[in-house]
């Protein structure tokens, strides 16, 4: 057993600080991360904006990583998934329009509003449930406890918990680049489909999370399996909504510039992440905590909704 496994204490010396203090530290971290990214992009200047964005995104992630090490809590990174995308999209729109609102297109407005709606909802969902620096996501705790003794925790934190999701989200945002910077094609039927898919995705996530909160708030449901509402048709409808969102954003990109079809790597990567990483981790935990979950798996699909099987 490694030394850091023995001595690691979530939150470190700040573990007993208030929830408000924790939020203040996270907020300050993200402000510093954003300023560092902006300074790097301004210093480099030359180069394709996509590459400059990637460099800034990685630097911001490294700043958040450093803060997570300083406070001994990898969950400092958790809101990055939903905070970074709207900042990036706004930066791209400003770059394309030069900050002139008169040049903003319908497609740019649609993409930006939908990304903001998704971001605000998901970030608020995190903020509502985060107790403070004393709490670290159970998945990170499990990764730390089950990792090989020779692998340092900071390396898993940096690569698996922080850099990997940053790169996955950036891949998902590739299609947004043409959607907000290529303006030669007018808003059309494919854009309407993109709005429907993306707005539908945000709605699915919102409803699924609300149904889960209501279910979990009832003491009588302790240890039980939610199988009503959207959860009747998918074991993870909130994850389905998240995957669907990135397909909707990809449709915007193709509507603006069909030649950017290859950005489909973004939503495909999202599907792979949830199918092979996120869902299996949740499934193992649910099977260990909820009797009858194995039978539930036989009836209800994991991710993509369909009517449940009888039984």
From TrEMBL:
GO terms for cellular component: membrane. PROSITE patterns: S5A_REDUCTASE. InterPro entries: UstE-like. Keywords: Membrane, Transmembrane, Transmembrane helix. This is Steroid 5-alpha reductase family enzyme. Coiled coil: none annotated. The chain crosses the membrane at residues 21-44, 50-72, 151-180, 186-204, 239-258, 264-282. Signal peptide: none annotated. The keyword Transport does not apply. The keyword Protease does not apply. It comes from the Bacteria. PANTHER family: 3-OXO-5-ALPHA-STEROID 4-DEHYDROGENASE, 3-OXO-5-ALPHA-STEROID 4-DEHYDROGENASE (DUF1295).
């Amino acid at each position: 057993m490694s030394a850091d496994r023995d001595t690691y204490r979530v939150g470190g010396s700040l573990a007993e600080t208030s929830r408000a203090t924790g939020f203040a530290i996270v907020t300050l971290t993200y402000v510093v991360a954003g300023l560092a990214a902006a300074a790097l992009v301004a210093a480099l200047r030359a180069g394709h904006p996509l590459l400059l964005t990637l460099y800034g995104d990685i630097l911001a992630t490294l700043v958040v990583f450093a803060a997570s090490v300083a406070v001994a809590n990898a969950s400092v990174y958790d809101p990055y998934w939903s905070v970074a995308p709207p900042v990036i999209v706004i930066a791209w729109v400003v770059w394309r329009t030069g900050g002139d609102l008169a040049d903003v297109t319908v497609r740019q407005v649609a993409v930006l509003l939908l990304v903001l709606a998704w971001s605000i909802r998901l970030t608020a969902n995190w903020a509502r449930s985060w107790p403070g620096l004393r709490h670290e996501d159970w998945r990170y705790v499990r990764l730390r406890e089950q990792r090989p003794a020779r692998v340092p925790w900071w390396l898993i934190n940096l690569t698996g918990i922080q850099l990997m999701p940053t790169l996955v989200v950036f891949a998902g945002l590739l299609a947004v680049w043409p959607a907000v910077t290529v303006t030669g094609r007018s808003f059309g039927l494919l854009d309407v489909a993109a709005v429907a898919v993306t707005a539908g995705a945000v709605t699915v996530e919102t409803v699924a999370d609300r149904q889960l909160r209501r279910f979990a708030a009832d003491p009588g449901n302790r240890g039980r399996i939610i199988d009503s509402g959207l959860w009747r048709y998918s074991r993870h409808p909130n994850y389905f909504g998240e995957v669907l969102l990135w397909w909707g954003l990809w449709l915007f990109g193709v509507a603006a510039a069909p030649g950017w079809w290859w950005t489909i790597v973004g939503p495909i990567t999202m599907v792979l992440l949830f199918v092979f990483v996120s869902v299996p981790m949740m499934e193992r935990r649910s099977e260990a905590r909820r009797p009858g979950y194995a039978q539930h798996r036989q009836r209800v699909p994991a991710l993509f909704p369909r009517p449940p099987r009888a039984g």
